């Protein structure tokens, strides 16, 4: 069993860091980097909305992690046979009611942060924000937990990719182009370019979950947690991983062929690293091999997104 900690040996600070899973924060930072890079290129950069978009995204990410930790434990999906990183609820390091309370507090802070973004972006941001929080809870909680019915990958692709990137671009564009508390969608705040720019983030963010679910496929199936990896099996889950990587590298090429300069191809510098990660995912099943691959996929997301954003700014 990988990464299991004894409750007596873990400080409160370390325990909460384990629950928050800071190694997943690239999934919150990446869409803000890309959305902001595009906003700078379009002359629509607004620093405060960009910062608050990151704070809100990070809080939703951490809140989702807390909810996942709590609900997987109380539903019995996390067991002693699981090979992933230590879950604080299941292992008894933090009491379930404390993790549940932390989930509510974190999502409440995300909503509070979002009030400024609603002021800037109006009704569209209110709708997006509430849906993002609701989906973060519904990923493993509620009457129809998305992650238990093969919908987790779609949730991540949509909310940590498309919605997060286009939303980051939108709030900055709205700050520059529109009046506060707008009801509709102001002209120039939503574009096909922003949607396409979101696809690499969506793809690699989803691949973090793919690695996680390939690692946990056997224990998830035994616990009745029907992830997409459980439905697809190892072979097609690996096909999904490669396809999402291909999407991440095809989009910069498309941008380059459509009036962006060659610097937009900077993400291709990460291809050798991506190939190493892909080789592990396509040949291994154990937590010993896939836990490092999970962290490396997060690092790949951060590097690809930073280079993509830089490439758009200086192109």
Task: List the SSEs and their pairings.
Elements: H1 12-20, H2 26-41, H3 47-74, H4 96-121, H5 123-138, H6 152-177, H7 192-215, H8 217-223, H9 228-257, H10 271-283, H11 287-314
What would you note in describing this structure?
The protein is mainly alpha-helical. It has one domain: Farnesyl Diphosphate Synthase (Orthogonal Bundle). The chain is built from eleven helices and no strands. The longest helix is centred in the last third of the chain and has 30 residues. It starts with 11 loop residues before the first helix and ends with a helix.
List key phrases describing it:
315 residues; mainly alpha; 0% strand; 11 helices; Farnesyl Diphosphate Synthase
Q: Brief overview, please?
A:
With 315 residues, this protein is mostly helical.
Please give the CATH class.
Mainly Alpha
Rg on CA atoms, Å: 19 Å
Tally of extended strands? 0
Proportion of residues in extended strands: under 5%
* Nearest-integer average pLDDT: 92
The ordered string of helix (H) and strand (E) elements is: HHHHHHHHHHH
* Gross geometry: globular
Query: Structural class, please?
Result: mainly alpha
Q: Indicate how many domains the architecture comprises.
A: 1
């Amino acid at each position: 069993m990988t990464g299991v900690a004894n409750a007596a040996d873990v400080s409160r600070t370390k325990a909460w860091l384990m629950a928050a899973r800071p190694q997943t924060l690239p999934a919150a930072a990446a869409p803000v980097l890309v959305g902001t890079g595009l906003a700078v290129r379009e002359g629509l950069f607004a620093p405060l909305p960009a910062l608050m978009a990151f704070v809100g995204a990070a809080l939703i990410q951490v809140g989702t992690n807390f909810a996942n930790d709590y609900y997987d434990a109380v539903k019995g999906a996390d067991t002693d046979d699981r090979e992933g990183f230590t879950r604080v609820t299941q292992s008894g390091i933090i009491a379930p009611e404390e993790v549940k309370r932390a989930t509510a507090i974190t999502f409440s802070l995300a909503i509070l942060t979002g009030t400024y973004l609603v002021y800037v972006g109006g009704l569209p941001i209110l709708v997006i924000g509430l849906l993002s929080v609701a989906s973060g809870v519904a990923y493993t909680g509620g009457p129809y937990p998305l992650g238990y019915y093969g919908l987790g990958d779609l949730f991540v692709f949509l909310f940590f990719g498309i919605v997060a990137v286009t939303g980051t671009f939108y709030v900055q564009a709205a700050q520059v182009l529109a009046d506060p508390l707008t009801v509709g969608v102001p002209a120039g705040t939503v574009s096909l370019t922003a949607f396409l720019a979101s696809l690499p983030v969506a793809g690699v963010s989803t691949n973090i979950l793919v690695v996680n679910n390939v690692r946990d496929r056997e224990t998830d199936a035994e616990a009745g947690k029907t992830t997409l990896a459980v439905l697809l099996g190892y072979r097609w889950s690996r096909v999904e991983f490669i396809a999402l990587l291909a999407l991440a590298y095809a989009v910069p090429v498309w941008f380059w062929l459509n009036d962006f300069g060659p610097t937009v191809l900077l993400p291709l510098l990460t291809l050798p690293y991506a190939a190493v990660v892909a080789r592990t995912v396509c040949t291994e099943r154990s937590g010993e091999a896939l836990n490092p691959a999970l962290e490396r996929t997060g690092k790949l997301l951060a590097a690809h997104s930073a280079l993509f954003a830089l490439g758009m700014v200086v192109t």
